[in-house]
Design brief:
alpha/beta; Aspartate Aminotransferase, domain 2; Aspartate Aminotransferase, domain 1; five-stranded mixed β-sheet; 12 strands; binds pyridoxal-5'-phosphate
Length: 384
């Protein structure tokens, strides 16, 4: 099918997939094979070795590419493996600008692994386009942003960042894990590539670790295919199949996450026991107007400030439906404590400066019945 001709829900379910040519199986098979028979030397069906390509992986890559409006996808074994591949399109001496409030694992990869190999990084508050502009150097090759961010829901103006990148001749990469293509399509705003931790909403069922890059840039996809082959951080066919099964319901799940997320954010906003609620969908979010401009919904991610560590701990012990766990984006609701969990590696002073206090808890609102979730939060919030 030509995915461009169809709307989002149809693409989610159909793009990248045809009935299996040998059996007619309606579901793309899990091609659990490392290699492929060749009819003669150099005569094959386009598949030679499974690190290089696998039909289940190709189906997933085409499917998510269609959702992001990209020509190509390249799947990796995890979100950070996908981000590493994007950085490795560059060479020692090249400079990358990265958002200051990105996913902790991205920060660790850049600071503790890739800077040892000679890539240069600047970490800036990308909410302010002027800050991005002032961090530019003659050797800046990539601007890497995440929007909205984890856990404070900072929003970066994608179109403004894309203009800065274009003027510089650098690439803009957007980590679109939180918003998903259902709510935000960065390529349409000028980004050169999008990365996802497909572990999160794309898969949606908390049973896979995976990553994927989407792009329409021929040079980027060529570089990524070369890295899939040469560095080898590729996902197995079973994991690709699970994500492909997840994306079939992305539109249904995201609409439900958004409904529950808005209800819960609004309720918490009115509850004096939550001192602050960080959710881009609330009118008092400092970048609400920008968020409304570049996103069509706000999903189920939010953070709340409870005042101190003791209150945060009491809350995390008391919730019954919101399970205390890392990760996000699954159908089940989770709660986490960023200072002790996802951002534990960041020194406390830096954490506090970023606004990740000891009293902050993050919610990944699932798609259970919203009244049950509201009741759970109500009984768990510590009295003031
Ligand atoms: C989880 C996450 C990552 C890393 O992905 P993994 O699949 O865990 O390697 C990157 N970016 C964001 C925004 C994430 O939430």
């Amino acid at each position: 099918m030509k995915p461009d001709n169809y709307r989002f829900a149809t693409r989610a379910i159909r793009a990248g997939q045809q009935p299996d040519p040998t059996t007619g199986a309606i579901m793309t098979p899990i091609y659990q094979t490392s290699t492929y028979a060749q009819e003669g030397i150099g005569v094959h069906k386009g598949f030679e070795y499974a690190r290089v390509s696998n039909p289940t992986r190709s189906a997933l890559e085409a499917n998510v590419a269609a959702l992001e409006g990209a020509d190509h996808g390249a799947a990796f074994a995890s979100g950070v493996a996908a981000i590493e591949a994007l950085a490795k399109l560059h060479s020692a001496g090249d400079h990358i600008i990265c958002g200051a409030n990105v996913y902790g694992g991205t920060d660790r990869l850049f600071r503790q692994v890739l800077s040892r190999l000679g890539l240069e990084f600047s970490f800036v508050d990308t909410r302010d386009p002027v800050a991005i502009e002032s961090a530019l150097r003659p050797n800046t090759r990539m601007i890497f942003i995440e929007t909205p961010t984890n856990p404070l829901m900072h929003v970066t103006d994608i179109a403004a960042a894309a203009q800065i990148a274009r003027r510089q001749g650098a690439r803009l990469v957007v980590d679109n894990t939180f918003a998903t293509p259902y709510f935000q399509r960065p390529l349409e705003l000028g980004a050169d590539a999008i990365v996802h931790s497909s572990t999160k909403y794309l898969n949606g069922h908390s049973d896979v670790v995976g990553g994927i890059v989407l792009t329409s840039d021929g040079e980027i996809i060529e570089g990524l295919r070369f890295l899939q082959k040469s560095a080898g951080a590729v996902p197995g066919p079973m994991d690709c199949w699970l994500v492909l099964r997840g994306t079939k319901t992305l539109h249904v799940r995201m609409a439900a996450h958004d409904r529950n997320g808005r209800r819960i954010a609004e309720r918490l906003h009115q509850d004096p026991r939550a001192l602050r609620v960080f959710y881009a969908g609330l009118p008092d979010h400092p970048q609400h107007e920008l968020a409304r401009r570049q996103m069509s919904g706000f999903g189920g991610m939010m953070s709340i400030e409870l005042g101190d560590r003791e209150r945060a701990e009491r809350f995390c012990r008391a919730t019954r439906l919101f399970t205390l766990a890392e990760s996000l984006g699954g159908v089940e609701s989770l709660v986490s404590h960023p200072a002790a969990m996802t951002h534990a590696a960041v020194p406390q002073a830096e954490r506090e400066a970023m606004g990740i206090s000891e009293g902050l808890v993050r919610l990944s609102v699932g798609i259970e019945d919203v009244d049950d979730l509201l009741n759970d939060l109500d009984q768990a919030l510590p009295k003031r």
